[in-house]
Write a structure and sequence with these properties.
Chain lengths: ~300, ~450, ~325
C-alpha cells in the first residue's frame, strides 16, 4: 500500500459519489425525517427547508424524560424501557457468547478429544438454521416446558421475591431471550474464532505451560489477549444480531421485557402511521450499529473475511 | 370572629362528608390494588388512556396498561389466557376473539358480578347500552352460538364499538355538484368519476391489503348486497351472486381508488383520506376524531358523514372491541369495578368527549357530546342499521378470514376471476367447517 | 536420601497422572458450556419441533395434550396451494437476490480495485446498510416506496414521469431491491478482499503479454476468485432463506401471497392461524431445503480441497 495513489478520471469519482449516495442516502433520509413533523413529511416539499423539531424523540422517549412533553396526551410508547431491555439483553448475551464461544473454539482447535468431529460438524450445521424455524419449538418450550413449578422450592422463592403470577417460565424473562440469543450466535462465534486461535503460536502456550500455568490460565492469560481483533469482530457481529433481532424476542417477551425492534414493529400499527415517530425510533435503534461501523469498520471487515458469514 | 366560625363549620361539614363517603365507598376495599389491563393501540383506547387517571383519582385503584396493536394483542392474549394464572386483570378483545375465548372457557361469565350487591352499581342502567353491540360483542351461546338468543349469556361489555359510515369531502362534492350517494350504484359511479374530475385524486379510500384488511373490506359490502358468508346450515354461500357483486364493488373501489390502494391497510387508507388524496372514505366510525385534528389531517372542516350506502338493504358493520375479565385474572372484582366505571353513563360520556366511541344510546343523544362532535347524531342513526350478523363469529373464523383475505387480494392484484376465486374460498371453507364439526347434525 | 528420592519420584508420578487426567478432561471442560447451551436451546428445540410436527397442536395446549396425527401436517402442506406459492416466492426471492448481488458486488469490486485515496472510508460507508437492523431497513424502504409521500414516487412525479405502484403490483421486485441494497456490500467486501490477495505475478505477466482489461478480468481474475465467490454466494443463499423482518415490515407478505416467503408464512401460521403443528412441519420442509444446500456447500469445499491438493502434487511432480 506504499505505492502512490493512482489518478482516476472524473467519471470514476462520479460513480463513487453515486454509490456512496445510494448506500448512505436512505439512512440520511431517515435521520432528516426524524426531525420533521408528520405534516411536513406528508405534505411533501421534501427539501431541507423545514423547522427541525425534537418532538418525535420526545414522544418516543416520554417514559424516561424527566418532564412531560406538551404535545402528547399520555405516554403510550414507553420506548425508554425497551431501550434498556435491549441494552441488557444485547450486552449480556454478547459477553456470554464470547466467553463460552472462545472456550469452545479453543477446545476444537487445540485439543483432540472424543466427539470433536461431531461437535465441529454440528456447529457448522446449525449455523444454517433460520430463526423462523426456531420460533415454534422455542415458543412451546420456553412457555410450557422450561418452567419451575410455582409451588416448588426455587419457583416459590422466585415468585416471593420478584412477584408475578403463574409458574416461573423462561418466556417473558430477560434470561429466556438471552439464552436463545447465545445459542443462536455460538456456532458463528466458534467458527470465526477458530481461524484466529489457529494463528496463535503454540510455542507461546507451551512456554507458559512450562512456567507452571494450568490450561485455564494459559487460555485466559496467553491466548485471549492474542486474539483480541477476532474477539472484537465476533463481539460486533453478536451484538448486532442480539440488538436487531425481532421474531424470537416478540414471541418470548412480555410487557416488561419488550425490546426496541418489537416496539418499532408494533408502532407501525395500522391506526396511526406516524412517520416522524417511527423514523425517530428507527434512528435510535440504528445508532449503536452506526457507531460501530464508523469506529470499528476494520474489525468488521476482518470478521467478515475470516468468517465469510453474516451469522 | 363570625368568619372563623364559618370556616370551622365548613371544615367540620367537609370532614363529616368525607367520612361518610369513605364509609359508603364501594371502592375502599380495593384501594391500592394495581390492575394490569391489556388494551389495543386504537383511537378509542387512546381516549381511554386519557380518562384512566380520573378513575384512579376517584377510586384509588391503580391501572397499568399494556397497549398493543390489535392483532398482536390477540396473539398475546391467546398465550396469556391459556396459563393457569394470567397477568391481565381486564382485557379488551376484538369481536371475533369472543368465540375463541368463550369456547375455551377463558372469560368470566359476568352474571356473578352483576348479582353481587357490593360490586354492582344500581345506577348502571344496562338497558341504555346499545343492543346490537351487547349481543354482537358481549353475548355468547345464543342463536348460531354468537347471536342474541335465549340460551346465551354475557361475557363482556362493548367498549369502543364501531359501525361503518361514509365520510365525504364536502368541498369536492360541492365543486362538482355531486350528490351524496345513497346507494352502492351511486357511490361506485361517483367513485370512478372522481379521478376524472380531480386528476390525482382517488374515489373511495378502502383497505385492501392481503389478509384481514381485504377480507374486512369485502364483508363491508357483502351485507348491504344481501349476502352472507354462511346460510343457516353453515353452508358457505360466499360465492353466490351477492358475494360476487360485493367483490366486484371492492374491485371497482380499489381500481378507482388512490394510488397504491391494493396494498392499503387501514392506516394507509385513512392516511390517504386525511391527506386529501381521496374524496370518500367508507370504513369505521373511529376515525372521526382524527379528521379534525390539524396535526394529522389536511382536510379539517371539509368532511361530512353519511350513512353506509344501501345495496339491496342497509347493513353497516358491527365491530370494535369489548372488555372482559379473564378467567385466570388475579383481581377480578376490582377489574369488574373498572369495567363498570368505564362503561357507566359517566364513563361513556367522558370517553366520548375525549374522542372515543360511545356505546350507549344516552351518550349519542347527549347535548355536550353533540356540541363537541356534531357528527354524533349521524353516527347514532347509523347504529340503527348496524348488522350484528355481517360476519360470523365462530372459532374457525380466523382461518377462513385469512384465506378469504389472501384470495381477494389476489383478485385485486393478479386479476384472478372473481367467481372462481370465491368458489375456491367456499370449497376450502366447507372443508374447514367439516373438520370443525359443523355438519355433525346434518 | 534414597527414600526421599523415591517418595518424590512417586509424588511426581502421581502428579503426572493427575495432570494427565486433568489433561484428558480439559477439552471437555472448555467445550462443556457451549455444548450444553447449544443442546438445550438449539438441538433439543429442533427435536421438539420434529416431534411437534406430527401433532395437531394449538398454542393453548402443551405438546403432550396435542393429538398425534402422523404425517397429516406434511401431506396437507404438500397439497396446499398457498404453501406451494410461498415456497415458489421464497425460491424466486433467493435466486434473484443472490444473482443480482453477486453480479453487482463483483462488478463493483472489479471497478473499485484500485489504489485510491479514502478507500477505507468508502468501505466503511458501504458496510453501513448491513449493520442496520432489518426492522429499520424495512421501515426506511416502506417509507421510500410509499405510493404518495414516498421518496421514489415524489421524485418520479417531480420529473414528470408516471409513478410506480412499488409495494402493490411490484412488491416482490421492491423487496428484492431493498435486500440488494442491504447485502450487496457483503459480496463487494469479500470479493474485494479476494481480488487484493490475488497473486500479483499472474496479473503482471498477463499485462506484459498485452491482455486487455476485459481479458484480464475474464481469464485471470474471475477464475482465480471463483472459489471465494462460490462460498460467498452459497452463504448469501442460505441467508436469503432467513430474511423475514424486512419483508414483514414492508409488506407483511402481501399483496396476496406475492412476498410471503416461507419464514414469514411459518410465523403467520404459528401466531395468526394458531397451528403450531403445521408451522413445525413447514419449518422442517425449510430445514430440509437448507440442509441440501449446506451439504452441497460442504461437498463443494471438500471437492475443492481435493482438487487443490491434486494440483499441488502435480505441480511438485513437474518440478
Amino acid at each position: 500500500m506504499d505505492q502512490p495513489y493512482e489518478k482516476q478520471n472524473p467519471a470514476f469519482y462520479a460513480v463513487i459519489a453515486l454509490l456512496v449516495f445510494m448506500s448512505v442516502g436512505p439512512v440520511l433520509l431517515m435521520f432528516v425525517n426524524s426531525f420533521k413533523l408528520d405534516v411536513d413529511i406528508i405534505s411533501g416539499a421534501s427539501g431541507l427547508f423545514f423547522l427541525p423539531t425534537i418532538q418525535n424523540y420526545e414522544t418516543a422517549l416520554c417514559d424516561v424524560l424527566p418532564y412531560e412533553p406538551d404535545h402528547i396526551d399520555f405516554c403510550s410508547l414507553k420506548f425508554g424501557g425497551a431501550l434498556i431491555n435491549s441494552l441488557i439483553i444485547a450486552l449480556i448475551s454478547t459477553v456470554l457468547t464470547l466467553v463460552i464461544g472462545c472456550m469452545g473454539a479453543y477446545a476444537l482447535v487445540r485439543f483432540r478429544f472424543m466427539g470433536r468431529d461431531t461437535v465441529s460438524l454440528t456447529t457448522l450445521m446449525v449455523r444454517m438454521v433460520p430463526p423462523a424455524v426456531l420460533l415454534v419449538p422455542v415458543f412451546g418450550l420456553w412457555n410450557n416446558e422450561f418452567c419451575l413449578d410455582r409451588d416448588g422450592l426455587i419457583g416459590g422463592t422466585i415468585r416471593e421475591t420478584f412477584g408475578g403470577r403463574g409458574d416461573v417460565c423462561l418466556a417473558g424473562t430477560h434470561t429466556g431471550i438471552i439464552v436463545i440469543y447465545v445459542a443462536m450466535n455460538l456456532p458463528f462465534v466458534i467458527w470465526i474464532l477458530q481461524s484466529f486461535i489457529v494463528q496463535v503460536p503454540r510455542s507461546l502456550e507451551e512456554a507458559a505451560r512450562v512456567d507452571g500455568a494450568g490450561p485455564f490460565q494459559v487460555f485466559f492469560l496467553v491466548v485471549l489477549p492474542l486474539i483480541k481483533p477476532g474477539l472484537a469482530a465476533a463481539a460486533i457481529f453478536t451484538f448486532r444480531i442480539a440488538w436487531n433481532e425481532y421474531l424470537l424476542a416478540s414471541a418470548l417477551s412480555d410487557r416488561n421485557t419488550k425490546t426496541v425492534p418489537i416496539l418499532i414493529v408494533n408502532n407501525m400499527s395500522e391506526f396511526n402511521v406516524e412517520w416522524g415517530v417511527i423514523m425517530a425510533t428507527g434512528m435510535l435503534l440504528a445508532i449503536p450499529p452506526i457507531i460501530f461501523t464508523l469506529f470499528a469498520s476494520r474489525q468488521i471487515i476482518t470478521g467478515m473475511t475470516a468468517g465469510a458469514v453474516k451469522g | 370572629m363570625l368568619n372563623m366560625l364559618k370556616k370551622t363549620a365548613q371544615a367540620g361539614i367537609a370532614t363529616a362528608l368525607l367520612a361518610g363517603t369513605a364509609l359508603a365507598n364501594p371502592y375502599a376495599e380495593y384501594e391500592g390494588t394495581t390492575l394490569i389491563v391489556n388494551f389495543p393501540a386504537h383511537p378509542h383506547y387512546d381516549a381511554v388512556m386519557q380518562i384512566l387517571p380520573e378513575f384512579t383519582k376517584e377510586t384509588g385503584i391503580e391501572v397499568e396498561v399494556d397497549q398493543l396493536p390489535y392483532l398482536k394483542m390477540r396473539e398475546r392474549q391467546t398465550l396469556e389466557l391459556a396459563q393457569d394464572e394470567g397477568e391481565y386483570d381486564l382485557i379488551a378483545y376484538v369481536v371475533f376473539s369472543k368465540a375463541d375465548y368463550v369456547y375455551a372457557d377463558q372469560l368470566e361469565n359476568l352474571a356473578k358480578y352483576f348479582m353481587n350487591p357490593k360490586l354492582s352499581d344500581p345506577n348502571y342502567d344496562a338497558d341504555d347500552l346499545i343492543d346490537g353491540y351487547v349481543y354482537n360483542i358481549g353475548f355468547a351461546g345464543g342463536g348460531k352460538g354468537y347471536l342474541e338468543g335465549k340460551t346465551g349469556s354475557l361475557f363482556g361489555i362493548p367498549y369502543g364499538s364501531e359501525t361503518s359510515i361514509l365520510g365525504y369531502r364536502t368541498d369536492i362534492f360541492e365543486k362538482h355538484g355531486l350528490e351524496v350517494p345513497e346507494t352502492y350504484e351511486e357511490m361506485l359511479e361517483i367513485a370512478c368519476k372522481i379521478p376524472e374530475l380531480e386528476p390525482g385524486m382517488g374515489g373511495v379510500a378502502s383497505r385492501a391489503a392481503s389478509g384481514h384488511h381485504a377480507s374486512h373490506a369485502f364483508l363491508l359490502h357483502l351485507a348491504p348486497m344481501g349476502g352472507r358468508v354462511f346460510d343457516d346450515n353453515w353452508n358457505p354461500i360466499v360465492n353466490n351472486a351477492a358475494g360476487v357483486e360485493a367483490a366486484n364493488a371492492l374491485k371497482t373501489i380499489v381500481d378507482c381508488g388512490p394510488e397504491g390502494a391494493t396494498n392499503f391497510g387501514f392506516g394507509e387508507a385513512l392516511g390517504s383520506f386525511l391527506n386529501g388524496d381521496t374524496a370518500m372514505f367508507l370504513d369505521t366510525t373511529v376515525v372521526a376524531g382524527q379528521i379534525n385534528d390539524p396535526s394529522k389531517s389536511q382536510v379539517v372542516g371539509k368532511v361530512d358523514w353519511a350513512l353506509h350506502p344501501m345495496g339491496v338493504r342497509r347493513g353497516s358493520q358491527t365491530g370494535g372491541f369489548g372488555i372482559g375479565i379473564p378467567a385466570n385474572a388475579e383481581n377480578k372484582e376490582a377489574a369488574f369495578l373498572l369495567m363498570q366505571w368505564l362503561t357507566s353513563k359517566e364513563g361513556d360520556k367522558l370517553v366520548a368527549l375525549a374522542g372515543g366511541n360511545p356505546s350507549r344510546f344516552s351518550t349519542h343523544a347527549d347535548a355536550d357530546v353533540n356540541a363537541k362532535f356534531p357528527h354524533m347524531a349521524t353516527f347514532g342513526e347509523a347504529l340503527k342499521h348496524a348488522d350484528p350478523d355481517w360476519r360470523p363469529i365462530i372459532p374457525v373464523w380466523g382461518k377462513i378470514n385469512a384465506d378469504l383475505g389472501t384470495t381477494l387480494s389476489k383478485v385485486l392484484t393478479e386479476d384472478l376471476d372473481i367467481q372462481e376465486a370465491l368458489d375456491g374460498v367456499a370449497e376450502r371453507t366447507k372443508a374447514v367447517m367439516e373438520e370443525a364439526g359443523y355438519y355433525t347434525w346434518n | 536420601m534414597v527414600d526421599m528420592a523415591l517418595s518424590s519420584a512417586a509424588e511426581r508420578a502421581a502428579k503426572r497422572r493427575k495432570a494427565q487426567r486433568l489433561n484428558r478432561l480439559t477439552p471437555y471442560m472448555f467445550m462443556a458450556p457451549a455444548a450444553v447451551i447449544m443442546a438445550i436451546a438449539l438441538l433439543y428445540p429442533l427435536a421438539y419441533m420434529i416431534w411437534g410436527s406430527f401433532r395437531a397442536w394449538d398454542p393453548s395446549q402443551t405438546i403432550g395434550e396435542a393429538e398425534f396425527v402422523g404425517l397429516k401436517n406434511y401431506v396437507t402442506l404438500w397439497d396446499d396451494p398457498n404453501f406451494r406459492e410461498s415456497l415458489s416466492v421464497t425460491l424466486r426471492f433467493a435466486f434473484f437476490v443472490v444473482t443480482f448481488e453477486l453480479v453487482i458486488g463483483v462488478g463493483l469490486a472489479l471497478l473499485l480495485d484500485r489504489n485510491i485515496r479514502g478507500m477505507s472510508m468508502l468501505r466503511t460507508l458501504f458496510i453501513l446498510p448491513m449493520m442496520i437492523a432489518p426492522v429499520v431497513v424495512g421501515l426506511m424502504w416502506r417509507y421510500m416506496y410509499h405510493p404518495t409521500v414516498g421518496t421514489f414516487n415524489r421524485t418520479l412525479e417531480g420529473l414528470g414521469l408516471p409513478t410506480v405502484d412499488w409495494l402493490g403490483q411490484h412488491a416482490l421486485m421492491s423487496v428484492i431491491i431493498a435486500d440488494i441494497w442491504q447485502w450487496t456490500p457483503f459480496i463487494f467486501i469479500l470479493s474485494l478482499a479476494a481480488l487484493q490477495s490475488l497473486p500479483r505475478s499472474a496479473l503482471e505477466a498477463a499485462k506484459i503479454d498485452g491482455a486487455t482489461t476485459w481479458q484480464q478480468i475474464w481469464y485471470i481474475k474471475l477464475p482465480l476468485m471463483m472459489p471465494v465467490l462460490i462460498v460467498t454466494g452459497l452463504l448469501r443463499l442460505i441467508d436469503a432463506f432467513k430474511v423475514l423482518e424486512v419483508i414483514l415490515v414492508m409488506t407483511e407478505g402481501g399483496p396476496g401471497l406475492s412476498t410471503e416467503i416461507l419464514a414469514l408464512r411459518i410465523s403467520r401460521t404459528a401466531t395468526e392461524f394458531r397451528e403450531l403443528g403445521v408451522a413445525a412441519a413447514m419449518s422442517n420442509y425449510l430445514l430440509l431445503l437448507l440442509l441440501a444446500l449446506t451439504l452441497g456447500m460442504f461437498a463443494f469445499t471438500r471437492w475443492q480441497e481435493v482438487r487443490a491438493a491434486k494440483v499441488r502434487i502435480s505441480a511438485e511432480e513437474d518440478t
